[in-house]
Amino acid sequence: MKDFGLKKLYYSISEVSKLTGLEQYILRYWETEFDSLKPSKNRAGNRIYTNADIKLILKIKKLLRDEKYTIEGAKKILSSPTNGHGTKTKSNSIKTASSAPSGKSEIRSLKRDLEDLRDFLVDLRSKL
Length: 128
What we know:
By secondary structure, the protein is mainly alpha-helical. It has five helices and two strands; from the N terminus they run ααββααα.
């Protein structure tokens, strides 16, 4: 799940709020709680979010709202060497596009990623 196929490189906080279904004050609060969520700021001082930032926000939202983790629990999951589903994060596992899944757990993980992507696209489509 690398890219959502979104057309822009950077998004304002209001655009991210609409895309994710979260209020702007929640996004600003999560920046103070999650060290990995640090959107850049433009010359005017406004936050600019990348696709990676949006992906992280959606992961945090899923952990807090859907899976009912506390903020501390979500921080632990995001900072652990695995992403909470038993698969390694990018920093621990680099795969080429041509490598095939080698086990049942890896296939389940890929299936989960595809389902997450599908859910995101369905949600995005309903907001457009």
